[in-house]
Amino acid sequence: MLTLPIPLLINLLVGLLSLAFFLFGFVFLYRAVRKYQAIRKTVLHDYRQQDHPHQARGKVQNRHDGGLSRSLAALADPSVWIPLVSGIALLVFTFAGRHVIQFAFPAGDDEPKELHSETVQYLTRPDGTRIRAEVWGRSDAPTLVFTHGWGTSETEWYYAKRQLSGQFRLIFWDLPGLGQSTQPENRNFALEKMASDLDSVLSLANGKPVVLVGHSIGGMINLTFCRLFPDRLGRQVSGIAQVDTSYTNPVTTTKNAGFSRAIQKPIGEPLLYAMIGLSPLVRAMNWLSYENGASYLMNAHSSFAGSETRGQLDLISRYGGTDLRRPWLRGARWRCFIGMPNRYCRA
After folding, report:
1. Predicted structure pTM score
2. Which CATH number fits domain 119-287+327-344: 3.40.47.10, 3.40.50.1820, 3.40.250.10, 3.40.30.10?
């Protein structure tokens, strides 16, 4: 969860370094071009001061040879080729680094990919949210309702779709402001609001009992649903499966919780407020981190146990740096801690 204090700081640091590599690449190229032009002018001036006995009969050829020699002389100068090579190397790393880094991880036999059902339902909520949901499997099979994690979309459930759709009826939905669901007009992303959205998604089960499956904030939404709608339990909801989630503010249950709590108010929350206003820059930083492969290394360390494949790493890294369907990115979305006022949360 990149909005927790420690992952947030690491993500920002990686993003700033990625942005620095990108900017320094252009700075080095600019310096190399300016120096190249200056040296070429100097060499041209010296060339014109020289006496060339064969200039009259070989004027065109000498002009061509002289221009080539001046260019080579300028490129051979260390003040030109060193920043030139450095700039090119930084830009190649920026835009192609992940294509090299990915080979440090094995390719899987069944890599996750965007997988959609032909049965798609849209639910319009009173606050203007348009919830998108997909339905898989037989209508007479036991029903599972999947709620995805923070900052991702229903595409994270690739393996569930592949492995469970033959035995169960599966309902996957995008949280408001993520995936293909629209955000609420009042920008309310409280757990209670999303639990209410989940309640509307249950209507797609046609009155049959369901098992709620939640990952990360999806699990917190499930628990909030149980608190708000206790009458549904045992009747409409027959069970709950929680995956890598928390029953309370995740700042208090994460690794190094003491340090995270200590920096949440003085550092974490002010940073999130700033990221709301600077979201275009933050999105650019996340995109650069994805393209140069830094997000691969960060996610391999923080989100997997060591058996991850390159496709799995790419899937989780795209959630942070780019969107599967759009050319721009949505990695700066949902910048709020659990417990922060809703007016400061943006999707």
Report:
1. 0.81
2. 3.40.50.1820
